């Protein structure tokens, strides 16, 4: 039987696989009904913490629903994650998970892969149900330049 | 009907003011001339005053003319700008993008300068220079700097340029009431794109490309009043397009906005392009400022800022940030599309590709899909460059009105 830590690690990894495959339903299935997703970055230039995206589960669903209506770069992204720490809070039946994140982009024409972004996932994982669920994800980005950008969150 | 080579190169059936030669986006010689004749002559936004709020705060700026600058607030609270270049051996004086320095000390040989540009210390001065050279010979090169028009810090390399007020003229009058209170930058990021700076400014100067934006189609183009917006051209190449009410709730997931912006109607939108490469874009609750720093004919660094009111409550600021991120943030709906568009232009018209014509021929009584904004820009570009945008090398046989 899986240890709780292994189950949590697998949850984080599965969330990456789902986004890599643009399987947004599978991604949202890994999330609790109270899920909150945000992307943050610190700007040394303006000496401020910035929020670049902030959605609840319904907001994420809308973002995914609207994607086909927009013009986007279609190069696939690959999210590489290493779970660093898992801290359990038995009283809350939650765990805080910190993972290193590297995102690579591979061009459709020629298949050149470039490092697109680095940062960390700081996840809150709900443990009260039969399988762990993502309750909150903060993507703390170190990278702040993405060229012409991308529509799908990390 | 498709075109053979002869037809492809044939002059478009417009007056010459209505098209340009694509080499103005790719030619290295023209790019170097632009740096000298345009960027080193015009007033350019370096940063916002809220980025240097305290005495001795500094901000570095990569001036599009090519010379790195420092913007620093002095003990007297005045904002000044200098070359970020040590007058001794040409080293960079300040390496970090921001900081606070009572003295600006070069790491190379420890020469020090105050925030007025005076040299205040030359290490082992007398031993090395005796009486031949001293601190008064070693001041920093000061650049004209003014704070204005929303609290932005403007710089001008040209000591003989007109004043900032003369340069801007009436072009920002439409925003006058909206920028009468202190503003604050809450968002900053950069993007480097393989494209020409003028193509980005073009994108900010025409709304016909709303067809690229699903968001703008449903919240703007399909709404009453959209086609009533009119262009106004101002001296020095600036232009604006009038306001409209954007129907944000027409975008699934959108909603009515509460926080708004002083003096702006709910859902309002005012866009003003300042020559050569700056855009004020006030939309609902956020002022976005684009400033372009061309790195080469086909390489552009764009700085994006989002601003709110300095007096914002945390709740108001949070709403502005949400509004900003929906369309203009790095993961926003519109920004990626706009950048993808100019990336595509840079890819198609890259240096070495066969020159082509780029058409600015739409005339719709100066309303929103008229391409008058771009035509006005290129008229000013031609005036400053001493060249014609449709024939930059004076080699084409262009008829006055085809």
Task: Report the radius of gyration of chain B as a whole number of Å.
Answer: 23 Å
Mean pLDDT of chain B: 94
Task: Identify the quaternary structure here.
Answer: heterodimer
**Gross geometry of chain A:** globular
Q: Give the strand order of the largest sheet of chain B, numbering strands 1, 2, ... along the chain.
A: 2-11-10-5-4-3-6
In the predicted model, the low-confidence regions of chain A spanning at least 5 consecutive residues are: none
Mean pLDDT of chain A: 96
Please tally the β strands of chain B and state the result. Answer: 19
Characterization of this structure:
The complex is a heterodimer of chains A (154) and B (402). Chain A is of the alpha+beta class. Chain A is built from three helices and six strands. Chain A has helices at residues 4-20, 24-29, 57-66, and strands spanning 31-43, 48-56, 77-89, 94-106, 113-126, 133-141. In chain A, β4 and β5 form a beta hairpin. Chain A is globular and about 45 Å long. Chain B is α+β, with helices and mostly antiparallel strands and 402 residues long. Chain B is built from nine helices and 19 strands. The chains are: A alpha+beta (154), B alpha+beta (402). Chain A binds chain B through residues 39, 41, 43-48, 50-54, 59, 62-63, 65-66, 69-73, 144-151, 153, and chain B through 50-51, 59, 96-98, 185-193, 212-215, 251-253, 305, 321-322, 325, 329-331, 333, 335-337, 339-343.
């Amino acid at each position: 039987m899986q240890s709780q830590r292994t189950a949590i690690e697998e949850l984080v990894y599965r969330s990456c696989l789902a986004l890599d495959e643009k399987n947004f339903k599978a991604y949202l299935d890994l999330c609790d009904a109270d899920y909150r997703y945000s992307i943050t970055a610190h700007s040394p230039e303006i000496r401020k913490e910035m929020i670049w995206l902030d959605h609840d589960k319904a907001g994420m669903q809308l973002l995914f629903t609207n994607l086909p209506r927009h013009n986007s770069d279609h190069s696939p992204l690959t999210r590489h994650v290493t779970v660093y720490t898992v801290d359990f809070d038995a009283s809350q039946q939650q765990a805080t998970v910190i993972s290193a994140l590297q995102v690579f982009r591979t061009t459709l024409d020629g298949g050149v892969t470039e490092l697109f972004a680095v940062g960390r996932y700081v996840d809150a994982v709900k443990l009260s149900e039969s399988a762990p669920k993502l309750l909150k994800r903060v993507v703390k980005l170190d990278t702040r330049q993405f060229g012409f950008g991308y529509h799908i969150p990390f | 009907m498709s075109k053979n080579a002869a037809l492809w190169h044939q002059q478009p059936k417009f007056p010459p003011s209505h098209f340009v030669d694509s080499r103005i986006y790719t030619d290295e010689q023209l790019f170097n001339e632009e740096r000298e004749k345009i960027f080193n002559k015009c007033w350019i936004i370096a940063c916002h005053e809220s980025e240097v709020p305290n005495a001795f705060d500094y901000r570095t700026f990569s001036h599009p003319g090519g010379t790195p600058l420092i913007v620093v607030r002095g003990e007297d609270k005045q904002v000044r700008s200098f070359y970020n270049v040590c007058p001794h051996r040409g080293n960079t004086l300040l390496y970090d993008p921001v900081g606070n320095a009572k003295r600006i000390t070069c790491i190379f040989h420890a020469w020090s300068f105050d925030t007025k540009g005076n040299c205040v210390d030359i290490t082992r001065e007398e031993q090395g220079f005796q009486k031949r050279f001293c601190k008064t010979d070693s001041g920093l090169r000061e650049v004209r700097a003014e704070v204005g028009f929303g609290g932005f810090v403007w710089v001008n390399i040209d000591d003989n340029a007109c004043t900032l007020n003369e340069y801007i003229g009436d072009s920002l009058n439409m925003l006058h009431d909206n920028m009468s209170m202190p503003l604050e930058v809450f968002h900053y990021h950069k993007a480097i794109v393989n494209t020409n700076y003028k193509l980005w400014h073009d994108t900010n100067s025409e709304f016909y490309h709303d067809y690229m934006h699903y968001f703008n189609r449903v919240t703007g183009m399909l709404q009453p009043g959209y086609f009533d917006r009119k262009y106004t051209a101002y001296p020095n190449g600036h232009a604006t397009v009038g306001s409209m009410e954007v129907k944000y709730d027409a975008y699934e997931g959108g909603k009515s906005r509460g926080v708004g912006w002083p003096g702006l109607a709910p859902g309002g939108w005012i866009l003003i392009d300042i020559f050569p490469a700056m855009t004020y874009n006030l939309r609902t609750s956020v002022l976005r400022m684009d400033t372009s720093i061309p790195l080469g004919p086909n390489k552009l660094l764009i700085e994006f800022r989002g601003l709110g009111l300095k007096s914002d409550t945390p709740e108001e600021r949070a709403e502005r940030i949400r509004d900003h991120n929906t369309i203009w943030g790095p993961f926003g709906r519109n920004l990626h599309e706009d950048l993808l568009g100019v990336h595509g232009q840079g890819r198609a018209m890259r240096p070495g590709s066969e020159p082509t014509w780029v058409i600015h021929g739409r005339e719709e009584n100066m309303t929103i899909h008229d391409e008058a904004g771009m035509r006005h820009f290129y008229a000013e570009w031609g005036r400053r460059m001493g060249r014609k945008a449709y024939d930059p090398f004076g080699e084409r046989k262009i008829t006055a009105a085809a």
